[in-house]
Amino acid sequence: MNTVPTPYPIGTPGVPWGEVERADWLSRQNRRRSYESEVMSVIDSLRFRFDIEEYGRLDYGLDRYPMMAIRSGDWDDNLPIILVTGGVHGYETSGVYGALQFVDQHAAAYSGRVNLLVAPCVSPWAYERIHRWNPNAADPNRSFHDSLSPEESAEESAALMRLVAPIRDRVLMHIDLHETTDTDETEFRPALAARDGKAFEPGMIPDGFYLVDDSENPQPDFQQAVIEAVEQVTHIAPADSKGEIIGSPIAARGVILYPLKQLGLCASITSAPYRTTTEVYPDSPSATPEQCNRAQVVAVCAAIDYALAHR
């Protein structure tokens, strides 16, 4: 998808936002779906099979959200730990639904083999508004830095880091479930440029599934095992004419590399030897919402299977 840049409706081009612009932006964000009925209700239905934990609570004025995690009911400290996160960007729907569907449909198959910790919707305020940011116009998936002060960090990120802190050095595999959407190019990247007082440079949204590996600790065989499993249910994003996906050179088919820790990405919050970020394209004419959810589930299962076989 190619776009032609138009001036963002908030702020002055070239000037970073101040409090007035952020307040203007926030006033335009409306609730469009329900975290309680669409996410919490599913989590509640799993209580008799798993341990459910409230690991934080977001308090944004009149909006209050419990932050929920799902744990193996038969947690055994002798077993490896698997971390699954979704909804770090609340608008990336299949990340949330994929995490929940994995727990409901497949988690039991790993009972007695791993300890599962799943945070299916890290950003519930953004989930309801189908947005990338939290109400402070902060991107949680750039806020996973130990060095950030409470004022600098997104609370969504800080709460998840507190949850994971006791086990961060014991996690075998962490998979973070995301999407790349057309609105990345039409809304979210233009908003980011406007917020930071920078010029928006149009790009192209890849059509298909891809993964983001860690440039500081690449695991190409692990990434390819996930790609090969997912392509059984949906198509893999091809490189563009520059040999890139989303502006990054491909490391292998369907895989790019980011410095996860440097960027403060969610996939950097543990010392897991196996880490990946999924990216599904829900706006593709060749994929349905069900396929996108299924791709996330298959990616989780393939990632766990590989990690267990190669630990």
Automatic annotation (TrEMBL):
<keyword id="KW-0479">Metal-binding</keyword>
<comment type="similarity">
    <text>Belongs to the peptidase M14 family.</text>
</comment>
<feature type="domain" description="Peptidase M14">
    <location>
        <begin position="31"/>
        <end position="311"/>
    </location>
</feature>
<protein>
    <submittedName>
        <fullName>M14 family metallocarboxypeptidase</fullName>
    </submittedName>
</protein>
<keyword id="KW-0378">Hydrolase</keyword>
<dbReference type="InterPro" id="IPR000834">
    <property type="entry name" value="Peptidase_M14"/>
</dbReference>
<dbReference type="InterPro" id="IPR055438">
    <property type="entry name" value="AstE_AspA_cat"/>
</dbReference>
<keyword id="KW-0862">Zinc</keyword>
<dbReference type="Pfam" id="PF24827">
    <property type="entry name" value="AstE_AspA_cat"/>
</dbReference>
